[in-house]
Amino acid sequence: MRRFGADYLRETRRGMWADSRDALADLRLSEAGSVLDVGCGTGELTAVLREECAGRVVGLDRDPGLLAHVAGPVLRGDARALPLPDDAVDVVVCQALLVNLPDPDAVVAEFARVARERVAVIEPDNAAVTVDSTVDAEAALARRARQRYLDGAATDVALGAGAREAFAAAGLTDISVRRYDHERVVAPPYAAREVEAATRKASGADLRERRDTMSGSEEELDALRESWRAMGRDVLRQVRAGTYKRRETVPFHVVVGGADTDRG
Ligand SMILES: C[S@@+](CC[C@H](N)C(=O)[O-])C[C@H]1O[C@@H](n2cnc3c(N)ncnc32)[C@H](O)[C@@H]1O
Question: Where is each Methyltransferase type domain found (predicted)?
């Protein structure tokens, strides 16, 4: 399975849930005495959960290097076999975990085993990401690169609202789905990391690092990278002129279901 770096997770989650938390309403976090955030990574969602819930919020991940970045209680473990007894916590939640796992149904069933009250998953639909940019070629090239990523993925990276089927299969009840659009905007004045990202586009370094996650022959990917670098040089020119603007929208779907606490 794909490994994630702490910088990548911080960067891609920057500003997420800062504008609105309406889509988290069905988790009823203010009523929860305990919450488990599975596949918490560097704890970007865990921090939001701690702001919304007065109870105990624990982050769980299989990667100890990522867990070292999480403030507060953490557990090392596998989402497919959680190191907790049945009905151990009120709410079990994950964000951008199921899209990376080959068997989301089994993972949701495991969440249902451990949850006393509710299960929630927050998963992106990576096929529906959109990009608007002041550099004409950028949106179309981002679409081409994304298609290579979708074709190369071994898991359902466009799962999104489709997770509700796993909820029904796990016997979860009162299933609801809400959408949250995570918008990432680049506009002047640019942060140092945004200038660095433009430089990496111009060198093709960003695409080269994603090589392993993309489908296509060496020749096809080299051709994509050449066009990408030309686009990146335009991005860099506009950044230097202070005219570059880009908006990327990643749709996430929040699926929530009630856990059956009467297990007989
Ligand atoms: C895309 S990251 C999402 C991190 C975090 N939830 C967020 O939204 O920023 C996926 C995370 O799931 C973790 N992960 C992957 N497979 C796992 C498994 N079987 N058990 C526990 N964690 C897992 C990875 O280590 C990584 O931290």
Answer: 36-117
